[in-house]
From TrEMBL:
Source taxon at top rank: Bacteria
Record bears the keyword Transferase: yes
Keywords: Transferase
PANTHER family cross-referenced by the UniProt entry: SUCCINATE--HYDROXYMETHYLGLUTARATE COA-TRANSFERASE (PTHR48207)
Signal peptide: none
Protein name: Crotonobetainyl-CoA:carnitine CoA-transferase CaiB-like acyl-CoA transferase
Source organism per UniProt: Achromobacter marplatensis
A Pfam family annotated for this UniProt entry: CoA_transf_3
Coiled coil spans: none
Length: 414
């Protein structure tokens, strides 16, 4: 299906400048949260320079599958729109190059273990802020710089476990289960982007940059809605409900003739419409089901009645008819089915262009639309170009390469 017109994102307005046109970003981050953040900035027009260490961003090797250049699909998912250089920041010459690049930068994003930049003489408060007072410095980490867990490394699945997300995901048979996407990393990327945009607005008013902290720990805890609020009010420890909702019924996954649907009834009016359509009108007179509170108390009996009513109905027709009646319902799709939906094409949520395959931008601006400006870069692909723009001549660049400051590319296979 790749490259087919029905899956291609609609062409953007080539004349429209991105909302972040003219903003220059130095991206020192790797893996997911940081690169996703800077990719979203690039989609909106920012000039993003991705600086990779001698071994490259780890996600380049997290395949197969890989693209024609040998980079993992994982890497291409979060690094489009950027130019890339290789730079060894463990060497003084590498740090000098970084400082040169920061002279006209607006934003720096890094996700090193806290303390790494300080050891290199690049601490924000003591080294960078006095020299670049307008710089917005975004640090992404597992736990932040200080506190009982400050400075420790953090990974998505570990934070899902530590922060209670796994404890409410799964059912009694499976036990606590990792959410199937790196949701903490993903949302941390959005959190970092939001912080950067807030800092840009603050700088526009004050002329001053600032430090932005985004941590996986804070982000993971922020996801516990409504479970944390329920516990804080009742002291009742949330448990495993499978796909069900702790506060709403019926709000769960149900089997039908040819697959599964998710039914999301959030009020009595929707429940009445649902019962009328599927032949469960008698439930509306049953005191066990007349309000959401009562339906929660008798959710097992309600599930049994709904499953019996849906057993002979086909998935897609059932969902279409319910949605047309104002009852939220959707088929439980596979990943291919999700992207094969006509609405995914209409919204431009799949990009197939010039050999690049990716997910479209979720943020939509009418006057300054996001667009694919360049494909994900090969390792160190733009090193000479970027350094020439920074004022380094070819002799200087050659000397840096000879000193090992600019790693040769592609990097050696690990």
């Amino acid at each position: 299906m790749s490259g087919s017109t029905e899956h291609a994102a609609p062409p953007p307005n080539a004349r429209a400048a991105g909302a972040l046109e003219g903003i220059r970003v130095i991206d020192l981050s790797r893996v997911l949260a940081g690169p996703l953040c800077t990719q979203m900035l690039a989609d909106q027009g920012a000039n993003v320079i991705k600086i990779e260490p001698p071994g490259g961003d780890e996600t380049r090797t997290l395949g197969p599958p890989v693209n024609a250049e040998g980079d993992a699909a994982y890497f291409t998912a979060v690094n489009r729109g950027k130019r890339a250089i290789g730079l060894d920041l463990s060497l003084a010459g590498g740090r000098d190059v970084l400082l040169r690049l920061l002279e006209d930068a607006d934003i720096l994003v890094e996700n090193f273990i806290p303390g790494t930049m300080a050891r290199w003489g690049l601490d924000y408060e003591t080294d960078l802020k006095p020299r670049f007072p307008q710089l917005i410095y975004c640090a992404i980490s597992g736990f932040g710089q200080d506190g009982p867990l400050g400075g420790l490394p953090g990974y998505d699945a570990i934070l899902q476990a530590m922060c209670g997300l796994m404890s409410v995901n799964g059912d009694p048979a499976s036990g606590p289960t990792r959410i199937g996407i790196p949701i903490v990393d993903h949302l941390t990327g959005y959190t970092a982007q939001a912080g950067i945009l807030l800092a840009l607005y603050h700088r526009a008013r004050t002329g001053r940059g600032q430090r932005v902290d985004a941590t996986l720990f804070d982000t993971a805890l922020s996801l516990l809605v409504p479970h944390a609020a329920n516990w804080m009010h009742t002291q009742h420890v949330p448990g495993l409900l499978g796909s069900a909702h702790p506060n709403i019924a019926p709000y769960d996954r149900f089997a039908c003739l040819d697959g599964e649907i998710f039914l999301g009834v959030v009020n009595d009016r929707q429940f009445g419409k649902f019962c009328d359509y599927v032949g469960l009108a008698p439930l509306l007179e049953d005191e066990r089901f007349t309000t959401n509170r009562q339906r929660l108390q008798h959710r097992d009996a309600l599930r049994e009645a709904i499953e019996a009513a849906l057993a002979t109905r086909t998935r897609d027709t059932l969902c279409q008819d319910l949605m047309q009646r104002g009852v939220p319902a959707g088929p439980v799709h596979s990943v291919p089915e999700a992207f094969e939906q006509a609405h995914a094409a209409h919204r431009g949520m799949r990009i197939d262009r010039d050999g690049y395959h990716g997910i479209g931008a979720a943020t939509r601006l009418a006057e300054s639309p996001a667009r694919l400006r360049r494909p994900p870069p090969a390792y160190a692909q733009h090193t000479d170009e970027v350094l020439r723009e920074a004022g380094l001549d070819d002799t200087h660049i050659a000397a840096l390469r000879e000193q090992g400051v600019l790693p040769r590319w592609p990097p050696p296979k690990l």
